[in-house]
Amino acid sequence: RCGRPAPDRGASAGRAGRGGGGFPDLDAAARPRPDTVAHRAEKLADALALQILNRRLERIASTQTPAPYVSATAAHTELAHSANILQLGAVVQPGQWQPALGVIEIEQRRLVEQGITAAELNREITAIRTGLQNAVAGAGTRQSISLSDQLVATVDQDDVFNTPAETQRMFEAMVPGLTVARINQSARTLFAGEPI
Q1: Is residue 194 scored above 90 in pLDDT?
Q2: How far apart are the two ends of the chain, measured CA to CA in Å?
Q3: What pLDDT is attached to residue 56?
Q4: Which residues contact 58 (CB under 8 A, 6 or more apart)?
Q5: Alpha-carbon torsion 46, 121, 87, 157, what sign?
Q6: pTM for the full predicted model
Q7: Which residues, at least 6 apart from 54, have a Cβ–Cβ distance to it below 8 Å?
Q8: How far is CA 170 from CA 24, 38, 79, in A?
């Protein structure tokens, strides 16, 4: 399942006008979705599913001897106006890509088929919460260059810039909806893409 495009969660097929005549709207993936609280909640659920997979992959690399890979990560990227990409990547020892790929694929399947645990989810929510608390505490001491980079990135991605306190408030409002079932659904949706 490595190298599969992430599903387009905003496209519609057969829309009159752009796709017309029952044809799929091929431009839908190229149009960015509005930056809404619902969209951010969806992205957060996706990020949590991938972070749990990344923790599992990290644990395998640090506890198995010999380690099947040096490091492995899952990442989801939305490239505005062009693509929605989900990728699994690994750094492996020379000639060891096949065993590494097998371990990574098994772990990705386990995430999709067996899901996550409440303990895994709570760990990631706590980590995000701690990071946001630190960001709020340090908001007055942010470097100008970092702040300007964040402003440019939000404009470039058609997002709304938020203060750390607002981001923390939004996160806490989203937490009750971040259930094990919701994160499991995100994992299934993320890895439901078609082969390239």
Answers
A1: no
A2: 10
A3: 97
A4: 71, 72
A5: positive
A6: 0.79
A7: 72, 73, 74
A8: 34, 10, 24
What was the pLDDT predicted at 101? 95
Q: Tokens for 47, please give them.
A: 């990020």
For strands 71-79 and 83-91, give the pairing: antiparallel
Per-residue pLDDT of 10-64, as tens digits, reads: 443 333 333 444 444 444 444 567 888 898 999 999 999 999 999 999 999 999 9
As a whole number of angstroms, the distance between CA 146 and CA 170 comes to: 22
At residue 24, the pLDDT reads 44
Nearest Cα to Cα of residue 190 among 118, 130, 108:
108
Tokens of 46: 């996706």
| Signed CA dihedral, 167, 168, 173, 176: sign only | positive
Q: What is the pLDDT, as a whole number, of residue 195?
A: 56
What is each CA distance from 188 to 67, 121, 173, in whole angstroms?
Answer: 27, 16, 24
What mean pLDDT is reported for the chain? 84
**Span 144-169, pLDDT tens digits:** 998 898 888 888 777 888 899 999 99
